[in-house]
Amino acid sequence: MRKCLVLILFALVSKAAHSQVGDKEISITFDNISRAEAFEQINSSSDFKIFYLKDWFTDSLIQKSFVRKDIGFILDDLLEGTTVNYFLYLPDKVILTNNNTIYGKLPEGFFGKDTTEVEKVTASQKVAPIFYGNQDKVVAKSMETIRVGRETGTRSKDTYILSGNITNFESGDPIPDMTISTENNQLLAVTSFEGFYRIELPAGSNILKFRALGIERSEKEIIVFNDGTLDLVFEESVEQLDEVVVQGDIYKNIEETVSGTEEIDSEESKTIPLVLGERDVLKVATALPGISSAGEGATGFNVRGGKADQNLVLFDGATLYNPQHFFGIFSAINPFSIGQLEVYKGNIPAKFGGRLSSVFDIKTKDGDNTEFKGEASLGPVTGNLVMETPIVKGKSSLMFGARGAYANWILRSMKEQSLSKSRASFYDGIINYTHQVNENNRVKATAYYSKDNFSISSDSLYIYDNRLVSLRWQHRFNDKHLSEVQLANSSYTFNIEYERGANNDFDLGYKINETEARINMDYLHSTDLRFNYGVEGKLYAVEPGTLEPLNDGSSIEYNSLEKERALEAAAYLSANYNITKKLAVDLGMRYSTFMALGEQTQYEYEEGAPKNQGSVRDTIQYGNNEVIETYGGPEIRAGARYLITPSLSLKAGYNRSIQYVHILTNNTTISPIDTWKLSDLNIEPQKGHQYSFGIFKNLDADAYEISLEGFYKTSNKVLDFKTGAQLLMNENVETEVLQGEGKSYGVEFLIRKNRGKLNGWLGYTYSRSFLKLDSEFEEERVNNGDFFASNFDKPHDLSMVANYKFTRRFSLSANFVYQTGRPVTVPVGNFTFNDAEYAVYSDRNSYRIPDFYRLDLGFNIEGNHKLNKVGHSFWTISVYNVLGRNNPYSVFYTTENGDVKAYKSSIFSIPVPSITYNFKF
Fold it and tell me: Which topology term describes how it sits in the membrane (predicted)?
């Protein structure tokens, strides 16, 4: 029946089309008018009537004159360069159609021909029209149909090129790494860093699938008639987490090959109650399994039983040596400037190196290149501001962020006399410039600076600062080959100004500087095989210590330790391969080398004797850029994933890493005044191995995520200290440190609820971390050379983060933490000498401080959701440590007036309320 109706319709059209309309010639002049006005002029000055829609045409003006030309000639000229066709109907009517063509006759063999057969055509061959209603597979009614180009009766090619840009509907930002594939999952293209794509499609109808992390999945029918441009806009995924910090594509935790990764979004961390209402993605990271800190007020992180110096913190690709303000209480980065934080704690990608335990990859968000906007907050002790503005609209933008603390008023208002002259302040600033040069090139530059200035006693002032710059050029060679070239420089310095009004006032300083160059390449061979490869080099320059008099009255003599320099280089290659639909592997190899460079003095020590001042055998002088010692070796990265079902997978990973820099500290936790030491003739690099295995499951249409992952790590040449070690201003610092073995193991459990009024996660980690410092010499042996618990060994670690949304504007948040008390060394006896009593201490870390637990609550008030308003406000009312738990930070013992006394220090021993106001404009 359908074909009969088509036959009747085409018979009528064919009869009308054969009328002699084209024989009528007309003369007409168009004087700087639009196409729509030209058609109206033809309608009014001739016998022809043209039917069309004005929306099909732009406002371009026409200046033409025609003398005794038939209507077909005139229309061909007027419609050139548009997607509009025309059809001559009856003696004096013309029908215009956009994109497609009205045919006057049925194609040859229309009846009885197998429509599933694919017809090959040659250039300029007459082809039959495409009848979309005759497809075997019916396109869903909800699927958008888009026509590209202008259909003609002939076509010169079998395939056409389609290109364009894909952007985020909410933010207007480009969407990188979006895959465009066919119905049978054959990959066609992946968008570049700037959201550009270019694909080759067969003529006619194509059903394409669009997929990207955090973006709503979509399918579209693209009907291609010619080469063309098509820009698309997609909304963010409705599956994104509402009030949960860690988010991403709902299938990523199951499908990704790399295990032990976490993603944290700064925007969604705003509802988690933290100390003094300050938003902090790094603090949120410690609420996830396998990541912890030594305690409140402790700088650095411990990941899967590793030391704090075994974590690489990157800020837009540059190394950030101290990512925290005020002894770890606040993050050193403006939270409004952060786009995303990715933490790799298991199978670290081959492109990252230089640390044994983890990588914290912090990325700033790009400024808005279409309009001016910003975000600000005001809390009890800090204020934050970020502004974004376009420089060249649609192409480049600038983001500026600033933050400062004004805590001095709190210290001055306290009744405690010893704190009346104390001060505690910090500030940081960031500038980010992004420029889209063209569809193949993008440049991003970041500059950052932070400074802390505090004094809790009346005689010592601590000053430390971070500085870094990063310049990245992203280039797309073609649809499959992308590159990024980066230059970065970062430095960290600290000073201690000691001033008591006596003759021993001094200024002690330290500085480390790092310059890096990297070329990173991504090659997409197919949907099943991707490669990442590149090279990098780092130049270290360390000023290990300068001591100088603080004023003219000081008797301190100037002293400066020799500078340290080193060159680290690496090349890497990794491949992610989907062997089958269920089995995928990620294999990587990284080869790194390290050269300690002169000009410097090194000491050789006698063999068969402990390293001390008395066993120095020789002093060696190395000239400028002379190689002191070379280290290096292969680093292996391997991971595998097996899909048991689409919502259940098994993952395994192995890492072998080398670390060439170390932190020198003799504190139970690292502090901002600990120093970084380069490997040299006497201090060897650390090496580590990690094995991991996990099971990952999603439930209830991915509303719930459950994971259980175990790990086992070993390391050697881990740096620690001798009892009573003097590390600052020591030119023979190798005589004060020890290098030993480390091991850790554990199991991590996480359950996360992604949707609904109540969402959040519950994480639990059981882990152990041990260190062994053994030697044939007693002074280089700790705890008789046996394994002992490390300073951050906490077997049980439980974290719960929850948010309950009463309405779209009001929500209640909670954050609960429980941890086993960390190890300490305590007195187990005493003795008397010269009428004074002294303590005899236990083996190192053989006792523990009391367990730690804390509950934080917060109430969040969103502003109204009216569209036409100046900005959007957000209030957070929170109480940190609601239970008033006096959690000990450390326990220490001193001898005073001949008596041994024990002391306990705490950071926050009472509930700490705060109110923070946030405003977006």
Answer: Multi-pass membrane protein
Give the CATH fold of the 2-98 domain.
Phage tail protein beta-alpha-beta fold (3.55.50)
pLDDT band with cut points at 50, 70 and 90 for residue 685: very high
Q: What is the pTM of this model?
A: 0.74
In whole numbers, what is the pLDDT of the chain averaged over residues? Answer: 82
| Cis-peptide into 599, omega within 30 deg | yes
**Which residue in 462, 490, 826 sits closest to 671, CA to CA?**
462
Distance CA 86, CA 75 (A): 8
Report domain extents, the chain.
2-98, 126-234, 252-920
723-733 burial code (b ≥16 CB/10 A, e <16)? eebebbbbeeb
Interaxial angle between packed helices 35-45 and 71-78, expressed in degrees from 0 to 180 and rounded to the nearest 10: 170
pLDDT exceeds 80 at position 507: yes
C-alpha 220/C-alpha 722 separation (Å) is 67
Within 10 angstroms of residue 674's Cβ, the number of other Cβ atoms is 22
Is 269 strand, coil or helix? helix
CA 474 – CA 444 distance, rounded (Å):
8
CB 781 within 8 A of CB 720: no
Burial 772-800 (b: 16+ CB within 10 A, else e): bbeeeeeebbbbeeebbbbbbbbeebbbb
Radius of gyration of the chain (CA): 35
- Tokens, residue 357: 């335990």
Contact 596, 566 (CB under 8 A): yes
Q: Which of 107, 75, 106 is nearest to 88 (CA)?
A: 75
Q: Tell the residue number behind the tokens 């889209």, with chain if given.
A: 436
Structure tokens at 858: 């917060």
| Of the candidates 276, 304, 262, the residue with the CA atom closest to the CA atom of residue 797 | 304
pLDDT digits (tens, 9 = 90+) for 806-833: 888 888 999 999 999 889 888 777 777 7
CB neighbourhood size of 552 (10 A):
6
The pLDDT tens digits of the residues spanning 263-288 come to 887 766 767 777 666 778 888 888 89
Which element (helix H / strand E) includes 788? strand 787-789
Q: What is the CATH number of domain 126-234?
A: 2.60.40.10
- Tell me whether strands 311-315 and 358-364 are parallel, antiparallel or unpaired: parallel
Top CATH class of 252-920 equals mainly beta
In this structure, are residues 907 and 329 in contact, taking their beta carbons and an 8 Å threshold? yes
Give CA–CA dist 909/884, Å, rounded. 6
Helix (H, G, I), strand (E, B) or coil at 857: strand
In the chain, how long is the greatest CA-to-CA distance? Answer: 128
Task: Please give the angle made by the CA atoms of 795, 740 and 792, to the nearest 5 degrees.
Answer: 25
